[in-house]
Amino acid sequence: MIVKTYEMGYFQTNCYLVIDDKTNEAFCVDPGGDTTELIEDIKSMNFSLKYIILTHGHADHIAGVKN
Fold first, then answer.
1. 2 within some domain
2. Which of 47, 56, 58, 61 pairs as cysteine with 26 (C-beta 3.0–4.6 A)?
């Protein structure tokens, strides 16, 4: 298992990418800002993003969902 942390958005909220390196599947927790780096990492590591998990509905935790 691989866990990567990203600081996103104006408030530098933590976002997590959790990857199962055996199945090549991943989930993301609280993508709260610009997801460019996150998406680039997913593509370059060739993982399949299966889920986006939101801990709550504040903008600093959900702003990157649309990407």
1. no
2. 47
Stretch (H or E) spanning 31 = none
> What is the C-alpha to C-alpha distance for residues 25 and 37, in angstroms, rounded to an integer?
18
Half-sphere exposure of 7 (CA within 13 A, CB side): 3
**52 is in which domain, residue-wise?**
8-62
CA 37 to chain centre: 9
**Torsion 51-14-61-58 (CA) sign:** positive
pTM (2 d.p.): 0.89
Say what the pLDDT of residue 52 is. 97
- Mean pLDDT to the nearest integer, 10-28: 94
